[in-house]
Amino acid sequence: VLAAITAVTVTDASARRGFGPGGPPASIDTDGDGVVSEAEREAAAAAREAARAEREAARQAIIDEFDVDGDGVLNEEEREAARAAREAEREAEKTARYNEIDADGSGGVTEAELAASLPDVDPERVAAVFARLDADESGEVSLDEFLATSPRRNAHGRRGPGGKHKGRRGPSRRGGAIGIPGGVGDNGDDNPAGDGGGGDPLQ
Q: Which of 100, 130, 132, 134 is nearest to 117 (CA)?
C-alpha cells in the first residue's frame, strides 16, 4: 500500500511539473529513475541552449551572406535571394540522390532500383513510396517527379532572419513514408528525396 501511495505521489509530482502522468521523458530523466535530478535538469537546459544557439548561428550566417545593404535584417528582396539559393542547394542534393538511386543511369528510377537503395525496408513500404512518387504511373520515377517531393515542415512557425516572417505549414505533396538512407534525410522523415524536414532558418 505504501509503495502504491508513493508511486501515485511521484506521478502527481511529475504531472505538476508539466511532464504528465507518464513522468519525465527519457531525454531528460537519463537514469530512468522517474525523478529529474538537478544535474539532469541542468543538462536539459544546456541542451536547449545549445540548440537555440545553433539555430541562431544558422540564422546569422544567412543574414551575413545575403544582407546586401548591411542593416542587420533581410528585406524581401534579400530574403528571396536567400530562398532561391537554398532551393538551388536542395535541388542539387535531390538530384545527386536521384542519380545514386538510378543505378543504370537510364534517367528513370524503377521500383527495383528504389528497393535496392533500401535493403532494410519492407517491400510493401517501398512499393507505397514508389506509387506516390510515380505520378504519371509510367512505371518509372523521373527526375522531375523526384524533385517535386517536398520535405515536411515543422508544424510550428519559425521566425526568419528578418525577424518578422513566420513559417507556414508545408505538408508533403508526394513524400514517401520513409527517408532514404544515404541522403540528408536519414532521420526517417517523410521525404524520399532525402533533404530532411528540419526547421528552416528562412521560415
A: 100
